[in-house]
Every structure is written in C-alpha cells, then in structure tokens.
Amino acid sequence: MRLIIWVITLLSSLMITGCFNSKEIQTIEGSAQGTTYHISWWTPEDPVDPVDLKSFVDKEFARIDSQLSNYRPDSAIEKFNHTESTAAQDSSSEINYLINTAARVSRASGGCYDLTIKPLFDLWGFNGDVFTPPDEASLAVAMAKVGMDKLQMQGTQQLRKSRPKLQVDLSSIAQGYSVARIAELLEQHNINDYLVEIGGELQTRGQKPDNQPWHIAVERPLINKRSLQKLVVVKRTEPLAIMTSGTYRHYFDHEGKRYSHILDARTGRPVQHNTVSVTVIHDNPTEADAWSTALICLGRVKGIEVANRAGIAALFIEEQGEDLKEYTSEPYGIVEGIEVK
Questions:
Q1: HSE of 150 in the Cβ direction (CA atoms, 13 Å)?
Q2: Does residue 72 register a pLDDT over 80?
C-alpha cells in the first residue's frame, strides 16, 4: 500500500507558467497510475519550461501504462495475461526486466512475494473492494494458477507460461520503475537536482538551490490519521530511492478479524503478523519497490533476517498493542548520506 511517504519541500505553491527562474525550485504535478505525482527540480542554468516538461512526463506515463498497466485491457501485460496459452509470447525488454528483478526478490523472500498472485486478489475481493473469504476448494483452485516458477523468460523479449491461466500483476514494482523512468527523463533534459514522487514512492538527486538537502517524511502508520514517524534528510547528491509499503490503509474487517490486502503467495492468505509498514532505502527505485512489498509480506522477524542477508536497508514498524515499535535491518544503520530524525 502506498501513499505513506510525504515530500517536504518547504516551498510556496508555484503555478505552471512560462515564467520561471532557473535558480528557483520549479514544480509540476498531476494524476497518473491511479494516484498523483509531484516533481520538484531546479537547474543552475538553461532553465526547463515546466509546461514542456509536464508534457514530456505525461507522455512517458502514457507509454509506461500502455506496457505495464493491469487496469488497461489493451496494455501489453494484460494482453499477455488474457492469452491462455503455454506457447512463447512476444513481450518487451521492459516487462522482462521487471519480471527478472521481481523473480530475484521473490526467491530471496522464499516465495512470499510473487507477481502472479492476481487470481488470489480477485478471489479475496481486494481488486473489487468486496471482501469474500474463500472456501478451501476455491483457494486451492486459485493457488494452482500462482507461482513465479511457472513464468519463464525466453530471451529479452518473450515470455512463456507453463500454466495457461497464469496472470502477472506488476503493480508492486511498476510504480518504482516509473519513478526511475521519470528521473531518467529529467536527466535527459539536463536536470540533475530533483525530487520525483509518485503515489508516495520517490527518488531524489542533488539538493535544493540553497545547498540544503531534500527532506522526506515517513508517515506514522496509523489508521484514519496522518502524522510524522520519521524525517529523512537526504544529504547525499547521488540518486536515492525511498519506498514504503504498509498494511494499514487497505484492509477489511470481517467477523471481528482484520484482513490485510498483503497476501502471502505461499499460503494464498492475507499475512497475519503485526508489522504495519516497511520503508526501504536503496539506490534503485525499481528494486526498492519490490523489496518493500516483499519485506512487508514477510513481516519483521523473517523480514529483517532476509534484508540482512540481501544487504537491504529497511525500517520495520510493528504494532504492539496500542504502541508502535521500530526495528531496523543491519544495513539501515550504515546508509551513507542520510540523517534520520
């Protein structure tokens, strides 16, 4: 679940017009991928027109959606999903890159994280927001359609299912990848000081015009309330991604029990641990996105063990009665260029 990182830029609002100063922070924002995006940047010289940049950004979002969106029946990934065949299908290097990245994280998580759990989301009612706890027979049928090991890449631009009804849901990794793509677009326009945020997932590079660092606020994971848990001061100038996944924004209460939308692909059921959010700090936003989902799936105890083994810097927040307690992986304490308050 996203929307749980705030971007603190301490700026007055800025209208997108043709008048701008290259030594001031420029901003654009809009809607994309079922959420919102916000981009802040500045250039020491050769200013970039915000109107032109927004046009480039929106076109890139449209292109990404045409490939990766699970909500568009005409997207490349949905065409693959709806083709019930075990023959190799044309894909793209972009889709295969995401699947390859997710497969590595899935293996590291012991299969808890899995891109093929779409039938389980449908079965439990999370996609349609109508909670329907399945019976054992229905769960077994859905589980037979799940498994990253049933998805094979053939070369860089072909995919093959070993089960014809297998479906791939890229939502747990596509937004992080989108952050990376928009950041690359900015750099293509000679913008090297920026903050790109999509639905709470973000990447920074450089600093503000006054040589001050970007400030990122990590939300306290509370239901129906927004407050600050941590403030991350990004002092490093090289790209840095910060991604958070949580269980506390999207859930169902049923017969006195709470069911998270985070599903464990090994059991086909919502996770049962008390970890409510995981924040990952990483050089690569695509990998950070996949890892934050994998670690929230595993929960604090197993998640820290896996994060330590993989060298992933992660902050776990666990609900203990009415209190929240923080735990961190070992690499979290040695991330260079950040100050956490």
A1: 19
A2: yes
